[in-house]
Fold these 2 entries.
Entry 1:
Amino acid sequence: MSEFRPADSFRSPRFAQLATFMRLPHTRDVAGLDVALLGIPFDGGSSYRPGSRFAPREIRQHSSLIRPYNPALQVSPFEVLRVADVGDVDVNPIGIEDTFVRVERAVGALLDAQVIPLCVGGDHSLSLPLLRAVVRRHGPVGMVHVDSHQDMWEEYFGNKYFHGTPFRRAVEEGLLDTKRVVQIGIRGPVYAEADFDFARRNGIRWVIV
Amino acid sequence: MSEFRPADSFRSPRFAQLATFMRLPHTRDVAGLDVALLGIPFDGGSSYRPGSRFAPREIRQHSSLIRPYNPALQVSPFEVLRVADVGDVDVNPIGIEDTFVRVERAVGALLDAQVIPLCVGGDHSLSLPLLRAVVRRHGPVGMVHVDSHQDMWEEYFGNKYFHGTPFRRAVEEGLLDTKRVVQIGIRGPVYAEADFDFARRNGIRWVIV
Amino acid sequence: MSEFRPADSFRSPRFAQLATFMRLPHTRDVAGLDVALLGIPFDGGSSYRPGSRFAPREIRQHSSLIRPYNPALQVSPFEVLRVADVGDVDVNPIGIEDTFVRVERAVGALLDAQVIPLCVGGDHSLSLPLLRAVVRRHGPVGMVHVDSHQDMWEEYFGNKYFHGTPFRRAVEEGLLDTKRVVQIGIRGPVYAEADFDFARRNGIRWVIV
Amino acid sequence: MSEFRPADSFRSPRFAQLATFMRLPHTRDVAGLDVALLGIPFDGGSSYRPGSRFAPREIRQHSSLIRPYNPALQVSPFEVLRVADVGDVDVNPIGIEDTFVRVERAVGALLDAQVIPLCVGGDHSLSLPLLRAVVRRHGPVGMVHVDSHQDMWEEYFGNKYFHGTPFRRAVEEGLLDTKRVVQIGIRGPVYAEADFDFARRNGIRWVIV
Amino acid sequence: MSEFRPADSFRSPRFAQLATFMRLPHTRDVAGLDVALLGIPFDGGSSYRPGSRFAPREIRQHSSLIRPYNPALQVSPFEVLRVADVGDVDVNPIGIEDTFVRVERAVGALLDAQVIPLCVGGDHSLSLPLLRAVVRRHGPVGMVHVDSHQDMWEEYFGNKYFHGTPFRRAVEEGLLDTKRVVQIGIRGPVYAEADFDFARRNGIRWVIV
Amino acid sequence: MSEFRPADSFRSPRFAQLATFMRLPHTRDVAGLDVALLGIPFDGGSSYRPGSRFAPREIRQHSSLIRPYNPALQVSPFEVLRVADVGDVDVNPIGIEDTFVRVERAVGALLDAQVIPLCVGGDHSLSLPLLRAVVRRHGPVGMVHVDSHQDMWEEYFGNKYFHGTPFRRAVEEGLLDTKRVVQIGIRGPVYAEADFDFARRNGIRWVIV
């Protein structure tokens, strides 16, 4: 189990060696892991500013500064759980629906191995295949969604899938138990009061801050 | 009236087309407008860091992200008011007094057409010609001035006009009803306690935050 | 005709007013134009670094520095030709094939009006719908292609359309008269000598520099 | 005494002349000064991001915006105290221990001349020679330490001196009266609960915020 | 004379101490100098991008990397000539004509002291007061002008003085012996062939590159 | 052998997965390798601008754009040689001499395993331990040194080791066969003609460009 602890900072400076999430070990062999950090370098669902395809690598670089012990909670997560960086999903940079299939398959494989996936995106459209993978195995789920937008639009330029629609699609596909969904941090401006109709109709609560 | 609504975002992506303030229509014909957004690309009154001559164009670019409905106030301003981007004042980049004449003339034309001007600067010296245009038509005005400086210096290197003097000039020219002027957000450091003398002598209130 | 000359720089500073390509007039009415500058803000065909969706707007901003007379050639293009900025194609940011349809339609409309389109992208996948629009009206064309890559790959992650395949698709669709095609500036590294097979088989010449 | 006031801003624009700390006069002759601003351009004790060797010069540039009167406290510090920019310590960019000797000597010379040194770093390892210079003349001192880390590690890659160890060394060298030391702002993450052992053992208080 | 050599780089690291041009000594006492480096932090004559008011300070910072011996010419200029950084002209950031008076006065004082001024701007309008100072003492001069523009326009928004007019004004004021003037590097685009008329009429030669 | 080819770009987008040099496989097991890419993230020998400690990671990121076939030379290096990214040397960020020991040991281990080390620095002081490792095994070597400086100074602030001295140390330690050393690209400015004395005395040739 010791090989799943972060790199010993007294042996290797933090800026040295290949960058992994929080300097955790990298492995493709997930057997025995408790948690897998999985990158999803995809921004093909962005309506405005792309670039989050580079996010998993950048987060690997910058998370080198994180240390393993939280003095407020008095816990060393990586002593308690076996955590590793399992690399990235091989997304299809040009195809959002093919990417969804690849993401659902990769996450599903982790779930089937009893490993908790902790995904690092990527744009918000990716929440849909993540929910599909989970729900297909465990049934509809509640959700605490922290965001400034509801991401429940109907479509965008005729596209059913982009970063503004994942939770409408999730409701339509029966992935969410809407009574147990709450959206926190919602704020405007939006296009019209009607933007909130879908959530209202489906009994989803939200908190404007 | 419908042509004065912002571009339909389901037809044109927000990053497409010529940039206008908040994606509003651009027109030079102000008849029938309620509010005109007017750029003033001038920084010749800056004592330290110039560059705000590029501000109207940059604000046009970045305001593409604004959406038309405010869910907290439950209002769609562009449904209630006819608002347009009427372009920029043709300032004189090298001459502050000539620029003041041009600004006063442009803003005055809007006022004469019963259009409310909403100006996007530009450096703070421009408040003086704006006040001149308004006061010449409506008489002295009160003012709520939100700033960290009073902008009531006497002069700067022998210049009566720059971004640190507009409100002293405004008082001297009788443009402000000083009993109804309040300056909010004033803070130091300044050069000396005497920097506040002009406001004190003229009965202007200010709030140090 | 005079309204299609660039803005008079002695009336309006170059950093003022809404940005158009080279400060040319903006119009949606193309009748009587000789040349139309048309933006195509699309980067959904990029395999590596997206962002060219913002290129048309940025080029509008920065081309304000261009002046209208070329002293080497002793020509003022905008005196000889009526040129205007006709805005952008309303692309589909999430859908490359739908975008191709929109681009072909917009460019075709210009061609039908006897206006020469001069397009400002956008990623290189857009060359395909441009060729389709031209060839459908004029038959197969020769091409001088200045690039460091041939953009003649077979596919990318199963996608037939992206910025590495437009000219293979063009050959397959019969859009190019391959005897009259030359590619200038081609250089490596590439993936294998076989990357050049398609051009070789089709009699396309290229110059490695 | 008047020569130690900041440059008269009505004579010289703030962006003009050689940059000194807060536009104060520069002198190497410290006789008669009350406070000396002293740069220490050294970052050889940084374990992660170097670059603070450029900090004294950058702070000189950017502090040009500071004005001499504080209206909240109603004080003009440079009227009350003779303050000057006395330049930088000539550090040894490659040698941390030689740099410590040079810093202690420079600061000691100021103390011997009855001038209060106000040092502008530079990385946090420099606190050790500063304490040495003071304590050698005045005996052990209390300390209010505002930081997010305690900087009381044992060593780093075998080095006793770097920006994570100065206060452990200071305690070991008897420079601090630990009963009168408080560290404010300490927060995680750290490496282990044991990181706090040294402070605990030595009766040093800290406040986690 | 030795005090006018650059700082000894074996005593002070190059990034340390107040920044002066090429690490030369700073003095206001010009007696005995051969060459004076004089900053002119003014950009009030810029028609497009201001900011060169910060240039003298930035050039001080970055010229720290220059070393004193030129191995190609086998000369150490600062051994042969007494050179110092004499600070900046106290320009008037808001007033171009007042700035011209200040520049001419400062440069004239150096000339009167038999010191060669080497000025670091600042925008190109400043060439006019420099020529005035020289010509008033020595009579009309020839000029080798390396630039991409002739800077011989008539005016700009009604202003006789800005960075596009200095050499037309210089000819009009009789400062240049036009037979001995050559402009190297001129290129387009410009506004019209007529832009070259003034030079043609006055017998000035130029080289388009 | 196939596992030492670069990642198959038709399976994984170039911006995905942990970054390695040129997307080569990462391994700590060097047996059977022909060439090992080894990072040395150390900048403690820099006299001016530090930061190259981050270079190996940044080069890993950006070299993702390199493809495996060179069409000019008609060679695929990674088909001919087994090449891998073997990670970084665990340098001592605060100690240059300890770092030299670590570098020499790491490089020596590769040499002993008959693997050609290809090192990615890091500042230029690191050439010294690299030469030591090679020469200790193979005897004095010739050298083609491409640089703008000779890096043959005597010392810097009393330090024998920094990025300006490695080749003087190398000559003194007998590591270089000076008859077979040539330095290409040398240019000024330098401090004095005497800067070239050491090379002259030792019969080293250099080319000023």
Entry 2:
Amino acid sequence: MGNVNKVIGRIPISKVWPEVDGGDFPAKAFLGEVITFGATSFREGHDLIAVELLLTSPKGDTRRIRLAEGRPGLDEWTTQILLDQLGNWSFQVSAWEDEYHTWLHNAEVKLQASVDEELVMLEGERLLRRLAENTKGKDKKALTDFASQLVASGTSPAQRLSTALQAGLTELADRNPLRNLETLSDPRTVLCERRLAGSGAWYEFFPRSEGATRTKDGNIRSGNFKTAVKSLDRVSQMGFEVLYLPPIHPIGTSHRKGPNNTLIAGPNDPGSPWAIGNTAGGHDTIHPELGTEADFKAFVKAANKLNIEIAMDLALQASPDHPWVKSNPQWFTQRADGSIAYAENPPKKYQDIYPINFDNDPQGFFDEVLRVVTKWISFGVKIFRVDNPHTKPVDFWQRLIAEVNRANPEVIFLAEAFTRPAMMHALGKAGFQQSYCYFSWRNRKDELVEYLNELAHESANFFRPALWVNTPDILTSYLQFGGKPAFKIRATIAATAGATWGMYSGFELYESVARPGAEENIDSEKFEIRVRDWDAALKSQDTLIPRVTLLNKLRKENPALGQLRNLVTHYSDDPEVLVYSKHLAAEHNGGKANTILVVVNTDPHSVRETTVHLNLQALGAQGEIKVTDLITGQKFVWGEHNYVRLDSFTEPAHILRVES
Amino acid sequence: MGNVNKVIGRIPISKVWPEVDGGDFPAKAFLGEVITFGATSFREGHDLIAVELLLTSPKGDTRRIRLAEGRPGLDEWTTQILLDQLGNWSFQVSAWEDEYHTWLHNAEVKLQASVDEELVMLEGERLLRRLAENTKGKDKKALTDFASQLVASGTSPAQRLSTALQAGLTELADRNPLRNLETLSDPRTVLCERRLAGSGAWYEFFPRSEGATRTKDGNIRSGNFKTAVKSLDRVSQMGFEVLYLPPIHPIGTSHRKGPNNTLIAGPNDPGSPWAIGNTAGGHDTIHPELGTEADFKAFVKAANKLNIEIAMDLALQASPDHPWVKSNPQWFTQRADGSIAYAENPPKKYQDIYPINFDNDPQGFFDEVLRVVTKWISFGVKIFRVDNPHTKPVDFWQRLIAEVNRANPEVIFLAEAFTRPAMMHALGKAGFQQSYCYFSWRNRKDELVEYLNELAHESANFFRPALWVNTPDILTSYLQFGGKPAFKIRATIAATAGATWGMYSGFELYESVARPGAEENIDSEKFEIRVRDWDAALKSQDTLIPRVTLLNKLRKENPALGQLRNLVTHYSDDPEVLVYSKHLAAEHNGGKANTILVVVNTDPHSVRETTVHLNLQALGAQGEIKVTDLITGQKFVWGEHNYVRLDSFTEPAHILRVES
């Protein structure tokens, strides 16, 4: 073996960030996201260094940005940059000998101690002349003049230095550095995607339930894209930006599941939309009961008019009736008896689903999926919610997402993988723009503090979390048994603690009854069409609709809430009172800082009184702060330690905006 | 920008270890060290994978070693390997579809549930025939026979499988895998250096003090290499393996420091050995008062005879009288007034020292240092203790160590850098085989638990800690005010918690009086010759010599203590009772496990009673364990929870060997 050491530079740069796996993958960012760039850099001895970020935008412009020293003792250098262009940003860190500040520090100390006074002036003069040599025009003359002044007679060295500093010597020197011993880090990349990749409010409904009606004979008439168009207003009025639809393709009839996941479907049971494909078509086809392709196009258009994007489901599996089964049997696994393998988790069988075999004909299947995705992109779909990506090869997704994004960089893939962390993180690195996460199962303060910090800081470079309060698959015991306060608490945290949150319809109606022994709603919409009386709900005072509407309004009005990485958790003395803040500095918000502080009682069954202890620096504040509760309109003056009382039965949260 | 993504393999391998900075530097190991190799690897869906380590020894032999699953839910795969060859080991991780175990798992579950019984047998038959195709000789025949048996008539599927398993089917299949979908990680390197690089017992003395005598007129007659030879017996009898000598070169006379670091030396003051160089010579010269080059050679030889290696100081700085000042003024910094810059930390001046300028003539100075080091290597010196490496450029050290180790891979460099973590870690990555660390300032239980775990686990791949109890520069307040129990406690922990420990002479005599306001001994040997009455000390019962001797004997008898990475800390209910263990598995110790459990009261002023809670798995034990206290010889039966009483005034520690 030869030398396996990387050559260390003259000024060591031992770490840079953001970075994923030593540069193997780009760090994720979204348009408008504030990213902390930095490095660990240091030198031998006492002399000072300067550290700069060389940041190259997707358009190719390179800026040099001076980094500031970070946490004491750690040789960290950082800056925060708001990314304002889509595409790949590249950066390097440059570290060099800061001769001017080394000299200035020594000069100030020595003049104070009356040591070597004329000598340090002479050294200053020499240094400024060297800076001048490297410079042109006005700055050259100014540096030369300062050099002469430092060694001029008539006044004391201390007076000469003081005069020069007041006249702007430091700014001038900083503008014209020599960058002696400059060392560059390896280059790294940050991929800046559009805002909805990382920040947005999502809603989910089943189009067949929207506008569905119960007929006189007790049967249900399915909704469709035409009736569902009317529901877009409801979604829009609550302030959602993305509407995700479960699969809209023809549904298999073989082994179709009945209500509550029973094995035998009745003649009127509509089946699970995830059992994709029948004689009418497969992944490239619209379920006839939902309408025509024209109806779907019109639906997408109507949504877009309301500033709602449609997210489509991409579930790579087939019902036994899917056209692929006949046209491309090599995309499935043939068992030893010649039959096609259905899904199973032995000894459980899922005979309504044929999983794909990704290894028999990888190129053929890839081409087919690319064709399907490309078709729906042509219909105006720019977001795909991928069903169970963790049961398909990671390298397939990496290739598919890269290929789709090459032609359509605006397309977003959301990974629905609830599995072990290694896989969830790998899918993020493979390119998934967004991922469902374990937020639904983090309900107590301590576990929220730990998990929210992980999401906002530890994994944010490669894993963008979507905080869903419920889904057709998820109705946690917290919601089943927490009553209406539980719904309010979860929506409040989801909408304000991450950057993307999501809600599946029915949540705003407090639908909380589970199929016995399961963590999902009874009479699940996966297997039945649900008829909901939205008119009555809207008239009622007893829904979560006003709260959801308020939360999405606050998100729009307070850009700090749209960021992921700015989350800071604070302390409270109560084991159930969660406190966190989000701060966006004035320079990243048009000159005015935006700071939100959330205090929430995570126990839905109690009234809690406690003291909240704030990290004021994280709020961009000192001493007293004036805050307005954006839920009640109340105003308070807060400081480092604050009394709070939160009654979950009336209002479990403060959402405070820091006014000054 | 093009594609910046690393291509993910069919079976993702998202992390391998040991690894330093994504492979930028080799991981450190020493001969006989047990290293945990591993990977994070997983696949989509439910099918099983196998993960193997492809380990190539420095001689070029490659082994495949099957990894075992690590902690649940983390997709970790690990194995432990004792490295038994010097040089660069390289490794890759291989992950592949484990078709046999996937089939076996499904078959067992299905047979249990009476589902698809003949079909799984048929699938087994097909699989075994495929394995057989890939195989030769006896195994081919055996696989074919098993294949036929699985589908033979006459007995039930469950009976056929059971018969095959009892006949060794699994071992056979594991020996002949297909390795379908095999994915390889990037290669990584582990540099295995000799044992003393990472594990040993060190002693420090000033040769001029060894054999020094007080003359009748009250002056002191310096010791020298001839008189110091006699002291080697003392060092050897205590069981030390390395003897480190402060600089042995001529000492400058200009601005020589007097006793207790005073600015003016008297005519008989010997000066600090670190003020190197006078008219007699510099770094390549022996101080005439210590003897001749022949005397030094004889001293090294005498030490080696006692199995003691000599570590020499490498302090790259000069007194104003050093020959370099005239011969190579470009190796120093010229100030604006033409004078040579002495060391300073403004406004403090250290006029007895000229620091080196590493940037004026880097090649010339590098060559000179290489010449000096090479000279002493030719005298039998194989260890250099580098003074203040953090005040010299890191890239200089990386180059020097690589160059020296190219010709002399056995040479060890020890970094004496007490500074911020970024620099300390960078020096380890630059190649320093060993480093002083902050152990001296970690005295309470909690800080020891945190720091010892950092040293043994977080930083062990690139930073090998030497745990010194004291040095001529370090006499902590814990030792100043902790009394004799403090000395016993510190030696016990240093000798058993890390892998390398060190002691500077005088520690065993409880020398604890500090220069007022300082953290070092009064009348420091750095500036004076110390006359100690070792004969009286050896006769006295009141020294730490017996304890130190016992500790080094226990280290030799218990190889678990010579490992760094096997440290596990356990819990006790008392905030001062520290508990840790070191376990060496039987397979890495000639068939017999070696396990040491240390319980120590870190409060030198108290008697503590508490309960110790053991992680028995980390001790390689279950249920009850029999232990012998290696200090007192007492035997106990311990379990998961154990009462202890530790009286610091008599015996602050248990050092327990687990007998079974």
